[in-house]
Design brief:
This protein is α/β, with parallel strands linked by helices. It is built from four helices and four strands, in the order E-H-E-H-E-H-E-H.
Length: 133
C-alpha cells in the first residue's frame, strides 16, 4: 500500500494505548511505528502527522472517533492486523488506508468520512437483513 510503514491511532483512551501496542507486538508488528493522534492534530493533514516519530502522542487522552489508519502495509499484513483485531474481540473501530488523495486531508475530514461510510454500511446491512426476514 501507499506511504511509509506506520499506523495512526485515533480515539484510544490512555488506558487502552499500551495494551494496543502489546497486541501489535503479539501479532508480530514489534517494529511498526505507531503515532497516537491527539486532539491538537485534528486539523493537520495525515501526511503531516505521519512525519512524526514512533509513539508520538502516547499517553495523551483522546475523545475523537476510535480509528486506525494504516500506511505502507502489504495486503497480507493488512489482513493479519484486521483479522487479529477481530479475533481478539477488541472494541469496534473505524479502519482506513492511506492514499495519495487522503494523505492531504485533515484528520478530522477523514474521520468524518469514515463515520459516514460506517453508518451507510450499517444501514445497508440492516436493510438486507429486513429483506430476508
Amino acid at each position: 500500500m501507499y506511504g511509509p510503514w506506520k499506523l495512526l491511532v485515533c480515539g484510544y483512551p490512555v488506558e487502552d494505548q499500551a495494551p494496543f501496542l502489546s497486541f501489535l507486538e503479539a501479532l508480530g508488528f514489534k517494529d511498526l511505528p505507531v503515532i497516537f493522534v491527539t486532539e491538537e492534530d485534528l486539523r493537520l493533514s495525515l501526511e503531516t502527522v505521519l512525519n512524526r516519530g514512533d509513539k508520538d502522542g502516547f499517553g495523551t487522552a483522546s475523545s475523537m472517533a476510535r480509528a486506525v489508519i494504516l500506511s505502507g502495509f502489504t495486503h497480507n499484513d493488512l489482513h493479519k492486523l484486521i483479522s487479529g483485531y477481530r479475533q481478539h474481540q477488541l472494541p469496534e473501530q473505524l479502519w482506513a488506508t492511506l492514499t495519495p488523495i487522503s494523505e492531504k486531508w485533515p484528520i478530522t475530514v477523514l474521520l468524518e468520512e469514515l463515520s459516514k461510510e460506517a453508518q451507510a454500511m450499517k444501514e445497508l446491512r440492516k436493510a438486507k437483513k429486513e429483506q430476508t426476514t
